[in-house]
Structure formats: structure tokens, C-alpha cells
Write a structure and sequence with these properties.
The protein is an alpha+beta fold and 638 residues long. The protein is built from 20 helices and 23 strands. Helix content is 39%, strand content 20%. The strands form five sheets. Strands 1, 4, 6, 7, 8, 11, 12, 13, 20, 21 and 22 form an eleven-stranded mixed sheet that branches. Strands 2-3-10-9 form a four-stranded mixed sheet, with no helix packed on it. The protein is globular, with a radius of gyration of 31 Å. The structure holds zinc ion (ZN).
């Protein structure tokens, strides 16, 4: 296992980022639908069959094609608000959304990139059904920029606009379901050069890019609105593309694990060479072990055999012990082989002798299996149970992966898991094949327009931090958190109208409180700026209290389109005041008559805590304390 504290410059780590951020423009990129997602049951569904032609297969992986050539049925779900005939591919796309272009150009200028003279929309073939057209529309807006991150200049290769794809909502195999609400939401793509040299730096660069994007105040927020792809390589390793990191905090971990994984694979390569393995020894010689496992106690194997499936086994010479060796946290060569077998052979998984006897497979069965395939103590055996066709394809993929292990790190596209590990996704595609989108006219960017944009660029994030500290007396941490959140604009709007809640408390609510809610699974991104502003207005007018805000936000996140007032009513969080409050205080005094008798005005602290705890979120602490002091004084005086 790799030690901690890897010297990243020594291993030649290089990382490039590709950041995708959804924009909160008024309409989508190629039509006038609202860029938002709908919940609940779809009002419209329609079916398409995709049969990609051979000519489209430039960058398509054979396994996906294998499925699709059988004619996959795709069920699309839609509603009227978030999609129209454009998303359904029944009407040509409208011209590029000028608001999205403006945001992209603004970002480009903030990153010192050179805008193109003319924006040309291109089509990029996509055959997984996530685009109703069979391609994704994309256009380069600017090239060759740079940003400064902790004293280093990081090159920005290009800034582009893309349409987001439909989102998968279910189905496997021959029927897949997609929801087209997300299709056509503008995405801005920012790509850095592959110059980042450590996991920590990767995270800092991603953060810096995110800050510039948010400075435009035109980005969507919430889960899934920002997605990072990473390119990671080390010296002697390979360029690995990692797709779909959704949490910024995860980037350094993903990079760290990938560097370790590549190092671990290089160690396995060296070990195999030391054991004297040559590629010709790894052979596609598959043995039928069905008979051997006929009486097995392993439930998975038994079920497969009862269904008439075959058990096929292959010897991996000199691999003993290497399949189960941990190469990075949670990642092993055996698991990589299983991923490949699943992908290419459509099997559920593989068995290998490094982890046996286990799962009901006995030592005796392992011995007999080794004899069957002619394996010695230095060798490993991999086997699968499935149809002859699938099992054969799966073992072929395992043999291929074994050969690659002897060469080092195979180039591939991997997908990020939520714990920072990655899994095999597909082979690395060749350069994307692009075709001009003839339905959309190119857009000229004239110099005058650029100058106008350059004269009104948003405040840079660092400047915003300084201003917030000065203007609102926020500490540096809170000011930074606010700039890193998507709520800076809203913060200033709230403090402009709010008298009861201090700027510091507003900032803490929009950052720390919201973060805690998100951690508890509340989708805060569902709550609109207008709703949040209304909640602060309700606090301001004395309808409810500051303490009630988290509960109200939680309720609003689950009740789309309802008002803050409705939330306060539904939750019973209206403030107790006037006669009701006086009655409440008197009741508490009676209930605690003994304490009051013994301690007199000294009981204040105890009683205040008691009341606020019992009626949390429904009382204005200041009013209660005044009333309580007054009543205690009276009692004492009696
Ligand atoms: Zn539309």
C-alpha cells in the first residue's frame, strides 16, 4: 500500500480541469423555456428508438454500440413549463440565447481570454439517448485566457457554451428513461491547461474558477448544477479522464486517489516483471468449470448453474496476490477487472482466487479449479458464471486488463464515486467528432459590444471579500464563505431591507445555516431568492423569528412554489405576542412559583432559558426578556 505524503512533483503529477456550470439565464440556450427542473409525474411522455449508424461511431465505445444496435427504446418525460418542441426535436432550435453569450463573454474577459470573432454552434455526436437529437450542441466563445491562483498563472484553454443533456431517471438495458427538463439548460465550460501539480492546487483552481463564475451572479445553484471533469496523469502512468465530480471538496481527494492508483498499478507492473511474466503467457484460454461447481454451496454460482448458465475460468499467470492488493483506498486490480467484465461482458461480477475460499466456495473447490486450469501457487484464477457469450466476453476483457497491468496504467475514462474513488466508465474516446450546426446562424462578436462588457465587469471575488468586511463588518471567514456561496447578490438585497437581522446574522444564515441544512439532506437550492427574501421580511415584520428560519427554509424546499407566509402558518411558527405572550409568561411563572419564591429576580436566567427552549422559533427573545424582568420585579415588590 502507498504511504501517505506522496511527493507529487517527484511522481510528475499533472492535472487539468474541465468545469461545467449551469447558468441561471431567463431562458434555455436554444428556446424560451425556463431553465429549471420539474418534480413529480411527467405530463408528457414520448418514445424514440435510437439506431446509430456506423458513420456516427467515431468516438462511441463498442459496448454502448452493442446495446444500441439492438434498438434501445427511450422513454422521454416532459412537462410544458420546462420543455417545448425544440427539446423534443420537433422544431428547429432558436438562435443562441444572447444572455448566455453575455455571461460567457463576461467570464472570458474576467479570465483574460480572447473572444472569438464569430461564434459557431457545432454538433457533437452523443448516442446514449441523453439528447433527443443524437448530438449535443456546443460552441467556443473564447480562447487562451489565464487566472492567478496563489501566485501561479494557470492557463485557461477555452471557454465554451453547451446545452446540458437530458437527465436519466431510470431504466436499464432495452428501455431507458430520460427527463428532458434539463436538456438545453445553458452550461458554461471552462477548461484549464494540464499544469496543476498537486491535489490541493487542483481544488484551489476549481474554487477560483467557481468564484469567477459566481461573480456574474448568473449561475444556477443546488445539487448537480456544477460538474467537474479532471484529467490526471503521473510520469510513466497514463492520462485518465475522470467524469462528474459534483462536490468541490472532493476534488483533492479524487486527484490524490488517482495518483495513488496509478502508482499502485506501476508497482504491480514492476512486480509482474520481477516475477518474470511476459505478455505471451497471458492467454485467452477459457475452461468450462460448470461441472466442478455443480454441488457448490455458493449461492450465486448455484443459481446461475440452475438457470443453465456456464462457469468459465481463466488462468492469470504470476498474478497471485496482486488482484486483492489495495492500490489506492478502496481500489484493487481485481475490482478493475470486475468493472471491465461488467462493461464488456454484461455480467454481474467476477470471482478470483485471491479472495477465495469465501462466498460459499470451499478450499477444495479452489484446489480443483486450479488443477483444471493448470494454475500453480504463483498464479491467480478468475471465473464468471453467465451465458456462454457473456462469460466469454467478460473473460476476454479480464485477459485484456491483465495484459495492460503488465504494461502499466491503461488510458481510460473513469467516473467519480461520492467517496472519492473512481470506477471504469469506458475506453478513452478519440477526439470528438464535430459537425457544424446548420440550423443556427453564427453570431458575430463586435468590438464595441466587448468594450461595453469590459467596462462593466463584475467585482472580482477578492475585492468583494474586502468590501464585505469593510461595509458590513463581517469577519474574513464569513466574507469568504459568502463570496464562495451563490448568495452574495441576495445577501446585499436582504441587508438593504432588513432592520431586525444584522448583516452578520444574514450572512451566517446564507452560508453556515444553509450548509448545515444541505448536510442534513435539505435541497436548499430549491428555494428561490424571492422566497428567501420573503422569509427575512417576515422576520423583520415580527411575523416570525430568526430562529425559525431553518425550519421555514426546509419546508419551502419540500413545497415548491409556496410562500414563506404559508410555511409559517403550516409550521405554526407565528410569533406569540401581545396578550398571548403575557398569558404565557404568567403561566410559566405559576408553574415555577417555588423557584420564583426562592430566587426572586435571580430566577430570570433560568426562566428565560426555560421559555425560549419550550417555544423556540415562536418568540422574540428581546420582548420576552423585557416582559419577564418586569413581571419578576412586580412579584418581588409584592
Ligand atoms: Zn424549449
Amino acid at each position: 500500500m502507498m504511504s501517505e505524503g506522496v511527493d507529487y512533483s517527484k511522481i510528475g503529477l499533472l492535472v487539468g480541469l474541465e468545469c461545467h456550470q449551469q447558468l441561471a439565464t431567463r431562458t434555455k440556450l436554444f428556446c424560451s423555456c425556463k431553465p429549471s427542473l420539474f418534480k413529480g409525474e411527467p405530463k408528457i411522455t414520448f418514445v424514440r428508438r435510437l439506431r446509430p449508424t456506423q458513420s456516427e461511431l467515431g468516438q462511441v465505445d463498442p459496448a454502448a454500440y452493442f446495446e444500441f444496435k439492438k434498438g434501445v427504446r427511450i422513454l422521454y418525460e416532459a412537462d410544458n413549463e420546462t420543455s417545448c418542441l425544440v427539446e423534443m426535436d420537433e422544431e428547429p432550435p432558436h438562435p443562441l440565447n444572447p444572455e448566455a453569450i453575455e455571461v460567457a463573454l463576461t467570464v472570458a474577459l474576467m479570465m483574460n481570454a480572447k473572444p472569438v470573432d464569430e461564434i459557431h454552434v457545432m454538433r457533437k455526436t452523443v448516442i446514449d439517448g441523453s439528447n433527443t437529437t443524437g448530438f449535443q450542441r456546443t460552441c467556443v466563445v473564447a480562447l487562451n485566457g489565464s487566472i492567478e491562483v496563489e501566485g501561479r498563472t494557470v492557463p485557461i484553454e477555452h471557454i465554451s457554451l453547451e446545452e446540458d443533456a437530458a437527465r436519466k431517471t431510470g431504466g436499464e438495458g432495452f428501455e431507458i428513461r430520460y427527463r428532458i427538463d434539463r436538456l438545453g439548460i445553458p452550461l458554461i465550460e471552462v477548461t484549464t491547461g494540464p499544469v496543476i501539480r498537486s491535489p490541493r492546487e487542483a481544488q484551489r483552481v476549481a474554487l477560483a474558477i467557481g468564484r469567477i463564475l459566481r461573480a456574474t451572479k448568473k449561475v444556477r445553484r443546488g445539487i448537480g448544477t456544477i460538474r467537474q471533469d479532471l484529467n490526471v496523469s503521473i510520469r510513466d502512468g497514463a492520462l485518465i479522464e475522470i467524469k462528474g465530480v459534483q462536490e468541490l471538496e472532493l476534488i483533492s481527494k479524487v486527484v490524490e486517489y488517482e495518483a495513488k492508483r496509478q502508482l499502485g498499478l506501476l508497482e504491480i507492473r514492476d512486480e509482474l516483471k520481477k516475477r518474470g511474466l511476459v505478455e505471451e503467457e497471458i492467454r485467452e484460454e477459457f475452461h468450462d468449470a460448470t461441472e466442478l461447481f455443480k454441488e457448490t454451496g455458493c449461492r450465486v454460482l448455484k443459481r446461475a448453474i440452475n438457470q443453465g448458465k456456464k462457469v468459465l475460468a481463466v488462468k492469470l499467470p504470476k498474478f497471485s496476490g496482486l488482484l486483492s492488493r489495495e492500490i489506492a483506498p478502496g481500489m484493487r486490480l481485481g475490482r478493475e477487472m470486475a468493472d471491465r467484465a461488467r462493461f464488456w461482458g454484461r455480467v454481474g461480477g467476477i470471482f478470483h482466487t485471491d479472495e477465495l475460499p469465501a462466498y460459499g466456495v470451499t478450499e477444495d473447490e479452489v484446489d480443483r479449479l486450479k488443477r483444471l486450469v493448470g494454475a500453480g501457487p504463483e498464479d491467480a484464477v478468475v471465473f464468471v458464471a453467465d451465458s456462454l457469450e457473456n462469460a466469454t466476453d467478460a473473460l476476454r476483457a479480464v485477459v485484456e486488463r491483465a495484459k495492460e497491468a503488465l504494461r502499466g496504467v491503461p488510458e481510460e475514462t473513469r467516473a467519480a464515486n461520492p467517496d472519492g474513488t473512481t470506477r471504469y466508465m469506458r475506453p478513452r474516446p478519440g477526439a470528438a467528432r464535430m459537425y457544424p450546426e446548420t440550423d443556427i446562424p453564427p453570431i458575430r462578436i463586435d468590438e464595441e459590444y466587448l468594450q461595453e462588457l469590459a467596462s462593466k465587469l463584475p467585482e472580482l471575488p477578492e475585492e468583494a471579500v474586502k468590501r464585505l468586511m469593510k461595509e458590513y463588518n463581517l469577519n474574513e471567514k464569513l466574507a469568504n464563505q459568502l463570496v464562495d456561496s451563490e448568495y452574495l447578490g441576495l445577501f446585499e438585497e436582504i441587508v438593504r431591507v432588513s432592520r431586525r437581522v444584522s448583516p452578520r446574522a444574514v450572512a451566517a444564515t446564507l452560508t453556515e445555516t444553509f450548509k448545515a441544512l444541505r448536510r442534513d439532506g435539505v435541497d436548499v437550492g430549491e428555494v428561490s431568492d424571492e422566497q428567501i427574501l420573503e422569509v427575512f421580511r417576515l422576520v423583520d415584520s415580527g411575523r416570525t423569528t430568526k430562529e425559525a428560519i431553518p425550519e421555514i427554509i426546509t419546508w419551502l424546499s419540500k413545497h415548491r412554489g409556496r410562500s414563506g407566509e404559508e410555511a409559517v402558518e403550516a409550521l405554526g411558527l407565528t410569533v406569540i405576542s401581545g396578550d398571548d405572550l403575557r398569558a404565557l409568561v404568567d403561566r410559566v411563572l405559576q408553574e415555577n412559583a417555588e423557584v420564583v419564591r426562592e430566587r426572586g429576580e435571580g430566577a430570570f436566567g433560568f426562566l428565560m432559558g426555560y421559555i425560549m427552549k419550550r417555544f423556540r422559533g415562536r418568540l422574540d427573545a428581546k420582548v420576552v426578556s423585557e416582559l419577564l424582568r418586569e413581571r419578576l420585579k412586580n412579584i418581588h415588590g409584592e
